[in-house]
């Protein structure tokens, strides 16, 4: 026999339990090329490098005053 819940959990109770997952801080690492903070295992949005090589060519925007 497999244990089963006696009653259906309401959506509110379910969502309140799951709400704590979103409160955790994002795990950021520093890019080895430009030093910008980025998510791990992703291409750097600033310079376009991943694991030491350029994967995406990112155009630098010219700053105008």
Automatic annotation (TrEMBL):
One GO BP on record is: translation
Q: Cite a single GO MF annotation.
A: structural constituent of ribosome
Annotated protein name in UniProt: Large ribosomal subunit protein bL32
Signal peptide as annotated in the record: none
The record ties this protein, via HAMAP family, to: Ribosomal_bL32
Fetch the Pfam families from UniProt.
Ribosomal_L32p
Q: Which domain of life is it from?
A: Bacteria
Q: Which UniProt keywords apply?
A: Ribonucleoprotein, Ribosomal protein
What residues form the membrane-spanning segments?
none
The UniProt entry, under PANTHER family, shows: 50S RIBOSOMAL PROTEIN L32, LARGE RIBOSOMAL SUBUNIT PROTEIN BL32
Tell whether Ribosomal protein is among the UniProt keywords.
Answer: yes
Q: Which GO terms describe its cellular component?
A: large ribosomal subunit
Cross-referenced InterPro entries: Ribosomal_bL32, Ribosomal_bL32_bact, Ribosomal_zn-bd
NCBIfam families hit by this protein: rpmF_bact (TIGR01031)
The Swiss-Prot or TrEMBL record describes its family as follows: Belongs to the bacterial ribosomal protein bL32 family.
Q: Which SUPFAM superfamilies match?
A: Zn-binding ribosomal proteins
Asked if Cell membrane is a keyword of the record, the answer is no
């Amino acid at each position: 026999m497999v244990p089963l819940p006696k009653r259906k959990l309401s959506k509110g109770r379910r969502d309140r339990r799951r709400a704590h997952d979103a409160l955790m801080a994002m795990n950021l690492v520093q890019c080895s090329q430009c030093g910008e903070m980025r998510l791990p295992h992703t291409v750097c949005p600033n310079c376009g490098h991943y694991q030491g090589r350029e994967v995406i060519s990112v155009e630098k925007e010219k700053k105008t005053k």
